[in-house]
Design goal:
alpha+beta, 5-stranded antiparallel beta sheet, elongated
């Protein structure tokens, strides 16, 4: 995140990230007029009152296990994704935690100042979250069945393998499920678990 002067004495807060190796960076600026964006050769300005919704979520990927996302929606149907990581090289995706957090907090402050009535949600959608929980319940039943079978036939190496797999799975997936629980929030109480 960068803070610069807009030429009229007001600050301009900006944030940029590269969504892929190919193409230009996605750039965003918070001005007095609204959220200005520059994505793939297109530009626009969304007034703070025209932003209809913001969804914050935790979205890890294989190359960056600590990645956050903000989806900003416009009243006319457009949507912008703002990510907390940026591609550096073919093998490196760099976190931009402080810049992302500061930009998202500043965006919420500007919207609150403008009297926005945007819907503020956190985590996954309710249907998606329910599907994730159902899948995890089925997986837990299957793993319990395998564990019981391994105990009954005396395969203690199998028991240790299953317990190790379960511990690793809970460690990897537990944070994703906990952070992405669907909920609403307000401009003055952003969900700390969904900001780096």
């Amino acid at each position: 995140m960068q803070v610069s002067d807009d030429g009229q004495g007001g600050p301009v807060i900006s944030y940029a990230y590269k969504a892929s190796l190919i193409g230009s960076a996605h750039r965003f600026e918070l001005t007095d007029d609204g959220l200005a964006w520059h994505i793939a050769g297109r530009t626009g300005l969304w007034r703070y009152g025209e932003i209809s919704a913001i969804r914050l979520s935790f979205r890890p990927v294989s190359m960056q296990q600590h990645r956050f996302r903000a989806d900003v929606s416009h009243v006319k149907g457009g949507r912008i994704a703002i990510l907390s990581t940026s591609w550096q090289t073919a093998a490196l995706m760099a976190p931009q935690d402080n810049g992302f957090r500061d930009f998202i907090v500043a965006l919420h402050a500007q919207m609150a100042k403008a009297g926005s009535r945007a819907e503020l949600t956190a985590g996954l959608g309710r249907k998606t979250y329910a599907a994730v929980l159902a899948f995890l319940a089925l997986l837990a039943v299957a793993m319990a069945g395998l564990l019981i079978r391994a105990l009954l036939i005396g395969q203690f190496a199998g028991v240790l393998f299953i317990l190790g797999f379960v511990a690793l799975f809970v460690w990897q997936v537990g944070g994703f499920v906990r952070r992405n629980q669907p909920r609403s929030y307000s401009f003055d109480r952003l969900p700390a678990g969904l900001l780096p």
